[in-house]
Amino acid sequence: MRVSAALAAALLLGACATASTKPELAASSHAKARKLEKDGQLRPALLEWKVARAIDANDAEARANEARLTARIEGLVATKVTEARGLLQRGAPLQARRSLLSALALDPANATAAEMLREVGDIEFVTYTVRAGDTLASLAERYYGDRARGEVIWEANNLPPGKPLVVGAVLRIPEIPGVPFYAPRGSDKPVPPDEPPEVSPLLSDAREAVEHKEFAAALADLDRFLAQNPGDREGAELKKLALYRLGQTALEEKKYDDSYRALTQLAKLQPDYQDVASLLPQARRQVIDRHYQEGIRLFREEKLPEAIAEWKIVLDLEPQNVNAKRNLEQAERLLKGLEQRKSR
Asked: What is the pLDDT averaged over residues 28-41?
């Protein structure tokens, strides 16, 4: 009898046992959404409920909470806008501006708040000269740490919809109360339009590499830059963005090991960065499943050492995985028996 027949008969395949169900994948988004809302981060919480619905269209809890939170945000925005109108009538433009910016922090696309904000004037902002490769999303990531806030910059500058930024154009980047604002290093004052913030060539190259999805090159440049400038906040934030984009892109492209490594590194730097707490378990599950299935394939091809190596990876990530442990023990016994027969 061929060895493969004996091996196949001995192995109990549990391929389906490791597959994650939709409710399990959505559960992490549920948990994060609740925590974010509890912490007052309503927009990120709403996004997590939408992620849960994208994972499982039949998720009734996610659907109900998405509707509830949408209504809550709309109500808060309406309250802030009404509050701003009252402040303007009482001759308090500074307080009105803060109310309007708070409304835009909740709903960056709110046209009423944006129009009132432009009329108020006297907005605290920095100016930025557009460079090649810049987008509203990349500028929002740079100044607010959140790519979704690009619409605030779009509204503040009354830009045409759907058009790319023009290199050399000067944009006003408004501060949003309650949101981290990363002004050019060393200054809280607006940068003159003809004097854009000085940027290290390494940092500039890294930013361009991130925009072109050349993540390995970007991370190499950033590691060198941060070795020379360990306290640089902009470099540290850009490294987080590069790791996040790499993890997200690799996950979409089914390069699960690359995704898991990048997201694990990012989680060590900042565990609550965007939706890394949701993406990391997904990448980890996919890595476990892929190595488990690869072990089965190699086992069937009588490549026992290679199969053993794959199942050891599974157990490193998930020590309690019963199927991988059983298969590993069985394969090691069979390999030992084969080696003993060869030595006779």
From this structure: 82
Same domain, 71 and 149: no
Residue with tokens 């003993």: 340
d(CA 78, CA 69): 14
Q: State which of 198, 228, 248 marks the end of a domain.
A: 198
Average pLDDT, the chain: 78
Tell whether 282 and 172 lie within a shared domain: no
Token look-up 């590069």 returns 242
Same domain for 135 and 219? no
Q: What is the C-alpha separation between 146 and 238, in angstroms, rounded?
A: 12
**Bridging pattern class, strands 125-129 and 170-174:** antiparallel
Q: Indicate the pLDDT class of residue 344, thresholds 50, 70 and 90.
A: low
Residue 7 has pLDDT above 70, yes or no: no
Do 117 and 129 belong together in one domain?
Answer: no
* CATH number (domain holding residue 44): 1.25.40
Q: Which residue type occupies 21?
A: T
Residues 140 and 207 in one domain: no
Q: Is the dihedral of CA 78, 80, 81, 87 positive or negative?
A: positive
Q: Is residue 186 part of a domain?
A: yes
Per-residue burial over 174-188, b = 16 or more CB atoms within 10 Å of its CB, e = otherwise:
bbbeebebebbeeee
Structural domain including 236 reads: 199-344
User: CB count, 10 Å around CB of 192?
Assistant: 10
pLDDT at 178 over 80: no
Tens of pLDDT, residues 219-230: 888 888 888 888
Question: What is the pTM (predicted TM-score) of this model?
Answer: 0.46
- Which burial class, exposed, middle or buried, applies to 272 when counting CB atoms under 10 A from its CB (0-12, 13-18, 19+)? middle
Say how many domains are in the chain.
3
Q: Could you list the beta-strand ranges (E) of 102-236.
A: 125-129, 170-174
Residues 235-268 have pLDDT tens digits of: 888 888 889 889 988 888 888 899 899 999 998 9
